[in-house]
Amino acid sequence: MEAKQFDTQSLRSLIVEPDEYDPDREYPLIILMHGYGSNMSDLANLTPAISRTEYLYVCPNAPIAFDLGMGQTGYAWANLYGNTYDMEAMASEERFMDFLEEVEAAYRVRTDLLIMGGFSQGGMMTYQMGIPRPEKFAGLFALSSTVKSPDLIIPRLPERRDQPIFVAHGTIDMIAEIKAGRGSIDLLHDWGFNPEYHEYEGMAHEIWQEVIDDFVDWLERLTQGKRE
């Protein structure tokens, strides 16, 4: 596998190409959205554990930079604190959708197998951008995350409510608390969705190997019979 910097007018990113990458082949695309304060390199580390051969991966970098201290810079899709979240999240959504068009122009991808997900705030953005677009995204996944702003989704709920959604949450998560995670599942059910929900006893705000194993199982079922 090879990770390459892929920067566009909209966003910076890493593209992770599979082993024996063939530029003439169309690949299913997995989009990995990082969390608040992190960066595009974070979830790129998960790609070998998902599959080394079957998918092209894109890891976009959130556009809002802020100081983490100790000379470190973090990135956010929107400011989690204060009253600017909805405005900034919608601006990031617009930038991301432009970015995705740029990815599709540069790489041969299976437009029927675009799968988007993320960790923490990356999952929040996945819900926000993915639920209104079932025709665009074949599946969604949210790890240690919540539906941050239902008001950004409710006016755009689609007629189709059969979009596959994988959700994983740890019972001792102190960042995105399990109560909020369960509340998001209840909300998805209220909206008519049927997410596949996994809880992990003793897991904090992190991604265990067990989460990856369950996600890969879901991914295999989602793409079964559709991959070349």
Briefly characterize the structure.
With 228 residues, this protein is of the alpha/beta class. The chain contains six helices and ten strands.
Structure characterization notes:
30% of the residues lie in helices and 26% in strands. The model has no long low-confidence stretch (mean pLDDT 97). By secondary structure, it is of the alpha/beta class. It has one domain (2-219): Alpha/Beta hydrolase fold, catalytic domain (Rossmann fold). The two termini are 19 Å apart. The strands form 2 sheets. An 8-stranded mixed β-sheet has the order 1-2-4-3-7-8-9-10, with helices on both faces. It has a two-stranded antiparallel ribbon with strand order 5-6.
Helix-strand string? EEEHHEEEHEHEEHEH
Overall morphology: globular
What's the end-to-end separation, in Å? 19 Å
Q: Catalogue the unreliable spans.
A: none
CATH 4th-level superfamily: Alpha/Beta hydrolase fold, catalytic domain
Number of strands: 10
* Total DSSP helices: 6
- CATH architecture descriptor: 3-Layer(aba) Sandwich
The biggest beta sheet is recorded as: 8 strands, mixed
Number of separate domains: 1
- Spatial strand order of the main sheet: 1-2-4-3-7-8-9-10
Using the coordinates shown, work out and report the CATH topology.
Rossmann fold
| CATH class descriptor name | Alpha Beta
Query: What is the average of the pLDDT values?
Result: 97
How is this fold's topology laid out?
Elements: E1 2-5, E2 13-17, E3 27-33, H1 41-44, H2 47-50, E4 56-60, E5 64-69, E6 72-76, H3 85-106, E7 109-119, H4 121-130, E8 139-143, E9 165-170, H5 178-190, E10 196-200, H6 209-223
Parallel strand pairs: 3-4, 3-7, 7-8, 8-9, 9-10
Antiparallel strand pairs: 1-2, 2-4, 5-6
